[in-house]
Amino acid sequence: MQPFSPIVRPLKFYAVVPDADWVACMVEAGADTVQLRSKTLTGEALRREIRRAIAATSGSHSQLFINDHWQLALEEGAYGVHLGQEDMDSADFAALARAGIRLGLSTHDEAEMARALAVQPSYVACGAVFATHTKAMPTEPQGLDKLRRYVQQAGNTPTVAIGGITLENAPAVLATGVSSLAVVSAVTHAPDPAAAVRAFQQLWPE
């Protein structure tokens, strides 16, 4: 299998949001990377939402990943898709790679990391680093020591830390060597989401 296309720019601050309006908000705020994680829409409504999200990022510096719905992402010409371990058995990796779509894969331990790296994805996500209430996790929080080992295991493949990340703990997470920080509630529950994006982005040197 051919390796997946590399990301165009460093992932850095990675916002995971529930709809295309939020995607547009994150693009306007200048987020480096945005993921559309729609858990309620199906069928044509979902297709329209994916189209709106793609349109919102078109011509911007924000890199958009579509969570789970790889078929629609492929049909709509999305920049990237993000899949969980449970999706790896059914996804057509060859078709996605041929189309030049970037691929991110979730991992929760060393075995899942090895399985993900075998696909030669564009990046791997590691989590949950800390306790999170945004989704039910299959494993206990991994912590910083395990995250550091996952980063080493990933080698040259970019890594994304996710799960319970805040502005307060973000510097310690970045100190593990991880490439990117993914957040959900740190922006969607923030009083000023755009300000939250800017505050996180200041954690990376120019």
TrEMBL record:
<feature type="binding site">
    <location>
        <position position="87"/>
    </location>
    <ligand>
        <name>Mg(2+)</name>
    </ligand>
</feature>
<dbReference type="InterPro" id="IPR036206">
    <property type="entry name" value="ThiamineP_synth_sf"/>
</dbReference>
<comment type="function">
    <text>Condenses 4-methyl-5-(beta-hydroxyethyl)thiazole monophosphate (THZ-P) and 2-methyl-4-amino-5-hydroxymethyl pyrimidine pyrophosphate (HMP-PP) to form thiamine monophosphate (TMP).</text>
</comment>
<keyword id="KW-0479">Metal-binding</keyword>
<feature type="binding site">
    <location>
        <position position="67"/>
    </location>
    <ligand>
        <name>4-amino-2-methyl-5-(diphosphooxymethyl)pyrimidine</name>
    </ligand>
</feature>
<comment type="similarity">
    <text>Belongs to the thiamine-phosphate synthase family.</text>
</comment>
<feature type="binding site">
    <location>
        <begin position="35"/>
        <end position="39"/>
    </location>
    <ligand>
        <name>4-amino-2-methyl-5-(diphosphooxymethyl)pyrimidine</name>
    </ligand>
</feature>
<keyword id="KW-0784">Thiamine biosynthesis</keyword>
<dbReference type="InterPro" id="IPR022998">
    <property type="entry name" value="ThiamineP_synth_TenI"/>
</dbReference>
<feature type="domain" description="Thiamine phosphate synthase/TenI">
    <location>
        <begin position="20"/>
        <end position="187"/>
    </location>
</feature>
<feature type="binding site">
    <location>
        <begin position="184"/>
        <end position="185"/>
    </location>
    <ligand>
        <name>2-[(2R,5Z)-2-carboxy-4-methylthiazol-5(2H)-ylidene]ethyl phosphate</name>
    </ligand>
</feature>
<feature type="binding site">
    <location>
        <begin position="132"/>
        <end position="134"/>
    </location>
    <ligand>
        <name>2-[(2R,5Z)-2-carboxy-4-methylthiazol-5(2H)-ylidene]ethyl phosphate</name>
    </ligand>
</feature>
<feature type="binding site">
    <location>
        <position position="164"/>
    </location>
    <ligand>
        <name>2-[(2R,5Z)-2-carboxy-4-methylthiazol-5(2H)-ylidene]ethyl phosphate</name>
    </ligand>
</feature>
<protein>
    <recommendedName>
        <fullName>Thiamine-phosphate synthase</fullName>
        <ecNumber>2.5.1.3</ecNumber>
    </recommendedName>
</protein>
<keyword id="KW-0460">Magnesium</keyword>
<feature type="binding site">
    <location>
        <position position="68"/>
    </location>
    <ligand>
        <name>Mg(2+)</name>
    </ligand>
</feature>
<dbReference type="GO" id="GO:0000287">
    <property type="term" value="F:magnesium ion binding"/>
</dbReference>
<dbReference type="GO" id="GO:0004789">
    <property type="term" value="F:thiamine-phosphate diphosphorylase activity"/>
</dbReference>
<dbReference type="InterPro" id="IPR013785">
    <property type="entry name" value="Aldolase_TIM"/>
</dbReference>
<dbReference type="InterPro" id="IPR034291">
    <property type="entry name" value="TMP_synthase"/>
</dbReference>
<dbReference type="GO" id="GO:0009228">
    <property type="term" value="P:thiamine biosynthetic process"/>
</dbReference>
<comment type="pathway">
    <text>Cofactor biosynthesis; thiamine diphosphate biosynthesis; thiamine phosphate from 4-amino-2-methyl-5-diphosphomethylpyrimidine and 4-methyl-5-(2-phosphoethyl)-thiazole: step 1/1.</text>
</comment>
<dbReference type="Pfam" id="PF02581">
    <property type="entry name" value="TMP-TENI"/>
</dbReference>
<keyword id="KW-0808">Transferase</keyword>
<dbReference type="GO" id="GO:0009229">
    <property type="term" value="P:thiamine diphosphate biosynthetic process"/>
</dbReference>
<dbReference type="GO" id="GO:0005737">
    <property type="term" value="C:cytoplasm"/>
</dbReference>
<feature type="binding site">
    <location>
        <position position="135"/>
    </location>
    <ligand>
        <name>4-amino-2-methyl-5-(diphosphooxymethyl)pyrimidine</name>
    </ligand>
</feature>
<feature type="binding site">
    <location>
        <position position="106"/>
    </location>
    <ligand>
        <name>4-amino-2-methyl-5-(diphosphooxymethyl)pyrimidine</name>
    </ligand>
</feature>
